[in-house]
Amino acid sequence: MSITDPREAFAKALEEIGDNNDKVLAVSCDSASGSGYSPFISKYPDRYVEVGISEQTGVDISVGLAVNGFIPVISAIAPFLSMRAYEQVRNDVGYSNTNVKLIGSSSGLSHSPAGSSHQANEDMALMRTVPNMVVINPGDCYEIAMSLKKAVEYEGPVYIRMPRHPLEDILPIEERDFEIGKAEEICDGKSGITVIASGTVSNEAKRAVEELNKEGISCGMINVHTVQPLDQEMILKHASKTKLMFTVEEHSIIGGLGDAVAATITQLEGAPRLVKLGILPGAVNTGPYRELLAAYGLTHEKIKESIKKEM
Amino acid sequence: MKAKILKQTKLLAAKMRRYIIEEVYSAKSGHPGGSLSCADFIATLYDNHMNVDSKKPKDINRDRFVLSKGHCAPALYAALALKGFFPIEDLKTFRGINSYLQGHPNMNSVPGVDMSTGSLGQGISTAVGMALVGKREEKNYKVYTVLGDGEIEEGQVWEAAMCAAHYQLDNLCAFLDYNGLQIDGNITDVMNPEKVADKFKAFNWNVIECNGNDIVKLNNAISKANQYKGRPTIIIGKTTKGKGVSFMEGKYQWHGSVPNQEQYEQACQELNAVIAELEG
């Protein structure tokens, strides 16, 4: 049975990566247990750097490690890493193009009951504007493991948005081939509708598409794990035969997948109409994870409703 | 410190000051005041302590230098040019279009610059990261960083200070360029940082206080820092902002102002006289 716990998937992947590359260091902002670092730290205690609750210094210490040949993997709760330390990321990781791997843990609505301070609904928007930054938004445990593996192999800055709640595989592993910057076509549609989804809500979107297909509404679907660089070729291929396009993301509708897709399809003459499904800016709400997803229209039932409404 | 060596370092500092004025005047922008105040420390360091080779600026065993107060790039650029890292004539391109000598140092374009800096408080954290690598790799290199006294108003400085002491980074030496002035005036009026020495002691640092414009005292302080074991060292150097140019000395207005032609000529005259005397 495949792993469904994101932290377990991250922990296993980091341990394996550590086995094969002794330059990988885990940098923790008092986030070791929460991030899934524990197995790596138990095995390689001398490759763990604790910086305490200080994301800004943590990012810059990681830069100091990176310019001396190490591959720091720094993890902190997503809003604190991507927002409190934004300027350090922008200057010293992005502009300086240093080999730092940033793990925004418990991203999106993961900490839904904790309220807006602990939710990260703008992290992709911020990270997309950082020069040289690769932004990956994994949606299942395969994508979590592969994004970490590929990020360490890749020379340069990477931000990975790490989910917290259990996830089912988007596709059977044997059908997959993870490459940074490449999207996956889940299905091709015949009704002129394409759904582009990323991250934790890809499965929700996929289920909505499957149900619509059963009802005779044949939608195409693309799964996007790398939001930057975006697989423009795949997006344009589908956009050229689409009249109505939807983006689905557990993120603000400003600056994330939706806007990245919008900027891409405007290149096309007669571009399809685009409906961005995500979190409305300024939305402040709390509650259990799935209830909050539903409140923001991001469960499969709500996605299906939105698609039917816009048709 | 032998008289001959002292004279040589004084000459380096004097030439650096001359080029600092040249850079700022050419660019018609930049920060002369703080660059002049920290010139003696940078000159002492590069002349007597920094284990670096301009032909191998990325040597893995070199000492590292991080100008945490990145706006004083004119001082660092002058030192690096005079030490042969790049041509002296390039200093005139400072802050110009397509120049690799940006207003704040860029490690990816300037030979000899170990870290890009500019946003205050960030440099010292990267220096902590470098010193951590030195420890874990059991390297003998030292990591030096220069902080501004206004810069220590940034909270990140204290995060880094806590971390450096936690990891007992005795291979890290910070210099605090305590000229007492920042953009808007006296630091004690803008945001009083006192008691600075006590604060660093409370953060578990080894603290050395000295005249930051006295090369002999700076040289001794750096030697002591490098011998000290178990804790990072900060040298709190009392300096004069605008040091070496009479009309700039002790005036906060010269933090980021450019001399006009008359002022430029006077500054050159004063600094050239010092250089001529040392060369004589």
TrEMBL record, chain A:
InterPro entries (UniProt xref): PDH/Transketolase, THDP-binding, Transketo_C/PFOR_II, Transketolase-like_Pyr-bd, Transketolase_C
Query: Locate the Transketolase-like pyrimidine-binding domain: which residues?
Result: 4-170
Family listed: Belongs to the transketolase family.
Per the entry, which co-factors are needed? thiamine diphosphate
Instruction: Spell out the protein name for this chain.
Output: Transketolase
Disulfide bond as a keyword? no
Alphabetic keyword roster: Thiamine pyrophosphate
TrEMBL record, chain B:
Record's signal peptide: none
- Its protein name is Transketolase
Protein's organism: Anaerobium acetethylicum
Essential cofactor(s): thiamine diphosphate
Query: Which superkingdom, per the lineage?
Result: Bacteria
Concerning Gene3D superfamilies, the annotation shows:
3.40.50.970
Entry keyword set = Metal-binding, Thiamine pyrophosphate, Transferase
MF terms (GO), sorted A to Z? metal ion binding; transferase activity
